[in-house]
Amino acid sequence: MPRSAYSYLKDPSVIPVELAPDVDGPLDCRLELPENMEARAVKLHHESVVFDLHNHVHRLADNMLRDFETYARSGRIAMGYDGIAKSGMTACFNGYGGSAGRRSSPQAWQFEDIVWDLGIRQADIAHHQDVTILGTCVNDVDKAKATGCCAVFANVENAGIIGNEIDRLDVLYGLGVRCMGLSYNQRNTIADGSNETQDGGLSRFGEKVVVRMNRLGMLMDFAHSSDRAILDTLEISDAPCCISHSVPKALNTHPKAKSDDILRAISDAGWVFAVQSVPNVTSSKKEQSIFDVADQIDHCVEVMGIDHVAIGTDSMFGDHLGLHKCISKMMGHPAKPFVGEYVKYLENPGEMPNLTRVLVSRGYSDDDIRKLIGINVVKLLEKTIG
């Protein structure tokens, strides 16, 4: 029987829209390898710690253009438990709130909505312990591996939700949040975002936020933040940080992309950079695939060294491009064409075994593959959240 979100309530009406499938979806496909490579990849994926540093393991509405607003405002975003089981992931950082969790307001990133989304979804996770456990410390990764479950760690992509109340960081930590982005594309009270035309880096308040997050043991993420914010944080943070889902600018000049100079600076400081898999961020080509992701991993390994590179797919179950179209409309962005429709072989979290397959096909050693698909993130967490 399929595993359903909020099934403990025994009331199918709690999710008001038809959901996209989390297994056997229209874009699901397996990367084919020669028999000897396939056997090696399957064994490696099964035996290794597989850790996605940033994703969204929920199901989107099946008809995004019609049902996105109803779903986002419903207060019950549905996790894709069968897809999580299929993925073979040991752990992931799941993003909460944002455009998908807007129960109290049509505007994203309200503190009240983050608290609701954390609470309601983590209650559901706790009722699916055959697949998931709540992750709050490194030991939970070991527990998940031993039990065959996936440890779901909480990530919030925009610390701007705290406004000017720094103690809200402690509240979020108490609710299980272990990773947070300092800004999300635009400027907030803490730091500039990657889409700003002027880059002021960290604010004075942002410097206090960095110190508090260090003391709490909360991993800082700069996937949507500006270069200056990264460089400012390098000067004052007592712990390594991460860029949980991005791409190297040398291969795609997206606003989120990071230059080789930034990649070298963060690797020198012991940070981790995770390559993402998102249509029209991963590539600007019409046909986008896991091979573009692999090219970016290759480049980052060359620039940063094998110990500082990971995967942060930023994937979800359903029409990712449809989500981007809905968000653009919601935010009043000018209509623009989207070149690619999906990232073949790594469009959703259930396709994570294809990542191991493509790294095998690229000739990486078993030890290096283990680092790229999980161990580098675990070592980062040992130095941050503990």
TrEMBL record:
Gene3D superfamilies: Metal-dependent hydrolases. This is Dipeptidase. It comes from Dethiosulfovibrio marinus.
